[in-house]
Write a structure and sequence with these properties.
heterodimer; A: 291 residues; mainly alpha; two-stranded antiparallel ribbon; globular; B: 439 residues; alpha/beta; Rossmann fold; seven-stranded mixed sheet
Chain lengths: 291, 439
């Protein structure tokens, strides 16, 4: 564990997983719903940017804006066209909406393949600068960008949730939709904000992670599972919990293969998931209420 | 979310439970079982949706457009199993494009004895469980010849044998497809893997490589490669470590760090190509910058993949390729490709193999008096001898017979290519090339 390059990789992966988990967290906090389509939103954020820049010769920042808007629009469509109508028709039952959102996940992947192509595209680096040497390790620009943006995003989210009215309403509506409605709060508005914000966060995550190994239309499922596992580990009690879960998952993704070999990664993740589901379903951070 | 929308019910022994994702400690109770149930539900949903999708995409994509000649004779249907949607699309797209080009050229020049060729397309996503169904579907669409443009055509063999339709694994390298059993109608163009290991051993012997570390993806296709390659490679070098990672991995730092700890003379990356190959090569380049790197992957034939690599990160990588710019047949094909795709077109061995596949098929059909009698076409396939290939070293030929269904004649189909600082395999590896008699 004394190789700094391994820690840099773990940190980079952890930040990515943390952002994905945060994307889950926002929808879960605002609607009480697991939105498994965050993986495809992230894929769209990364793939759409690369496609616009490489194939359509867009200027980078225009492409970034369009891709993030696309991810947010996709999230809004998920809520307005899929989740909300399905929940309404099923008496707020979660299962039909979960199945529908899972179908959305695959549908977006297929659609992305048709639009952007099925081959992997290189991710776009937002800023160009020399990599930083840290001892024997090298911190590449894309890793540094992801780490810095992750810190900024989490701090901003923590402030937003705690300080702003919309942020507080987000959790109020998530805790009890009916109670919030009785109090006259705009439940539907809060829900759509949660989804759009989720799309933005996932889009940023995909955009910043794409330079590491490229991005293709089938990346969404794996990313959805990574983010979900990070949320399972971290829990939902605080806005920082997804980041902690992501970082732990990142460390496991690097050090389990390093010490035990590649095949052990899959085994260890399954064991970890079972352990958390069975013994710590609320994740590491548990919300407590004083009575 | 722990509110009135949550169901409240009585369970065993009258214990009241109200579960939630976040277990809230209210009046000393922790309610978490529902989370487990919900997780199971979610997992079930994903499995169900995956199954639905898999079923959907297994369906044949439908007929592709193919320019036909102006003649009034009925078309000869040729089925192409083109995996255009999995990770293999990185190389199958190139192959498919040139297959279509070659078919168009054949049709423009009058087709096969006046009969135009019409392509119909299927897509097994390189999923062995779908390959037989796609094969059957192509046959149902009237295919009289089958082309496998996917990662692993071997699962189609029993179905092909039953249908009796001549079939070519266009870019396949694993000899299973052309070897018994069930190989009456199956053929290969590429040099077999046994040749690859001979060439690698030759290069390593020449350059003094005695220890090799392997990094590979965990796909079934790559595992199949290993089963054929590794026993031979172990005879000429010591494989100090074999590291695996998922083909969808985003990071292989740990695997490369483990390889580094063994201090091998060279690293061999074996995978399906695409983003995994780039990730692997970049990580080796980052952690072991002076290491000699070899590639078993199809990266040398994937121009779109080269763009994924950061500048200079592929410099020096030695890859098993099949193109020698001095081969006259290669030059001839390149001029056709450039005329159709533009002067900047980067020709690959997959272009050459796709092109040669259609020429071989046309030859067999023409000699059989037409393409619609599959038994006759198959017989003529087995009579093709000394066909000058568009790939390999100058003078390289393909020959088939009743017992020889892999066309390669010797090691000359392989060219070791080396990447330059522009991340392009622009030159032949100067230190070693397989011994080859020119014709």
């Amino acid at each position: 564990m004394n190789d700094p390059q391994l820690w840099i990789s773990a940190l980079q992966l952890g930040c990515f997983f943390g952002l994905l988990a945060l994307s889950y967290w926002v929808v879960l906090s605002g609607t009480g719903f697991f939105n498994f389509a965050v993986g495809p939103y992230a894929m769209v954020g990364g793939l759409c940017t690369s496609w616009l820049v490489i194939d359509k010769e867009f200027e980078l920042w225009s492409a970034v804006v369009i891709a993030l808007v696309a991810a947010m629009a996709l999230a809004a469509v998920t809520e307005l066209v899929v989740v909300r109508p399905v929940q309404r028709r099923s008496g707020r039952n979660q299962l039909p909406a979960l199945v529908a959102v899972t179908a959305v996940l695959f549908a977006v992947e297929q659609l992305a393949g048709v639009i952007f192509g099925y081959t992997t595209l290189p991710g776009e680096e937002l800023f160009s600068f020399q990599s930083i040497q840290i001892g024997s390790a090298e911190l590449l620009p894309d890793a540094l960008e992801l780490i810095v943006v992750t810190v900024v995003v989490f701090v901003a989210m923590a402030v937003w949730v705690r300080v702003t009215r919309t942020g507080r309403l987000l959790r109020a509506v998530g805790d009890s939709r009916e109670a919030a409605a009785l109090l006259g709060l705009s439940v539907n508005r809060i829900r759509i904000i949660a989804f759009v914000l989720s799309g933005l966060l996932a889009g940023i995550a995909g955009l910043l992670f794409a330079p590491k190994a490229g991005v293709n239309s089938s990346a969404g499922l794996q990313w959805a599972l990574d983010g979900f596992l990070a949320l399972v580990i971290g829990g939902t009690a605080t806005v920082w919990a997804p980041l902690v879960g992501g970082l732990i998952l990142g460390v496991l993704q690097v050090f389990v293969p390093y010490y035990l070999g590649g095949p052990w990664l899959a085994y260890s993740l399954v064991i970890l998931a079972i352990v958390f589901f069975a013994f710590r379903p609320q994740g590491l951070f548990m919300r407590t209420i004083r009575v | 979310m722990n509110g009135v929308n949550q169901s409240t019910r009585t369970r065993h022994g009258g214990t009241e439970e109200r579960g939630d994702w976040v277990s809230i400690n209210v009046m000393g109770r922790r309610k978490s079982k529902r989370v487990v149930r919900r997780a199971a539900t979610v997992a079930g949903s994903i499995v169900a949706a995956t199954a639905l999708l898999a079923t959907g995409t297994a369906m044949v994509a439908g007929a592709a457009t193919g320019k036909t000649s102006k003649g009034s004779k009925s078309p000869i249907i040729v089925g192409e199993d083109w995996d255009s949607t999995s990770a293999n699309a990185a190389f199958t797209d190139v192959t498919a494009k040139t297959i279509q080009l070659a078919v168009n050229q054949v049709n423009k020049s009058g087709g096969v004895l006046g009969h135009p060729i019409k392509l119909v397309i299927g897509n097994d996503e390189s999923d062995p469980t779908k390959t037989p169904a796609v094969t059957q579907q192509l046959a149902n669409e009237g295919a009289k010849f089958l082309l496998y443009n996917n990662g692993l055509p071997a699962p189609a063999k029993p179905t092909v044998q039953k249908l009796g339709i001549p079939s070519i694994g266009v870019t396949a390298v694993i000899p299973t497809f052309a070897n018994p059993p069930d190989n009456t109608f199956t053929y290969l163009l590429s040099s077999p893997l046994s040749d690859w290991s001979q060439v690698l051993c030759g290069a390593w012997k020449k350059t003094g490589v005695k220890t090799v570390g392997v990094l590979r993806d965990n796909s079934t296709t790559t595992a199949s490669l290993d089963n054929v390659l590794f026993p031979t490679l172990k005879k000429c070098v010591t494989l100090v470590d074999v590291e695996t990672a998922p083909g969808t991995a985003s990071d292989v730092t740990a695997q490369v760090a483990r390889l580094k700890s063994h201090n091998p003379d060279a690293i061999l990356v074996a995978d399906l190509g695409g983003s995994f190959e780039i990730l692997a090569q970049e990580t080796v380049h980052q952690l072991m910058p002076t290491e000699t790197r070899y590639s078993l992957a199809t990266i040398v034939n994937e121009p779109t993949t080269w763009k994924l690599a950061s500048p200079g990160s592929l410099t020096g990588v030695i890859a098993i390729g099949s193109l020698n710019p001095n081969n006259p047949q290669t030059k001839k094909l390149k001029s056709v490709l450039v005329a159709n795709n533009g002067s900047s077109y980067a020709m690959t061995a997959f272009d050459a193999q796709a092109w040669d596949t259609i020429q071989l098929m046309k030859t067999a059909m023409a000699k059989a008096g037409g393409g619609n009698t599959t038994a006759k076409v198959n017989k003529q396939m087995q009579k093709i001898s000394s066909y000058l290939a568009s790939f390999g070293q100058p003078g390289y030929t393909l020959t088939y017979s009743a017992k020889k269904h892999a066309g390669a004649n010797g090691l000359c189909g392989i060219v070791l290519q080396q990447f330059d600082s522009q991340n392009k395999p622009s030159k032949a590896y100067a230190k070693y090339q397989p011994p080859c008699k020119t014709k």
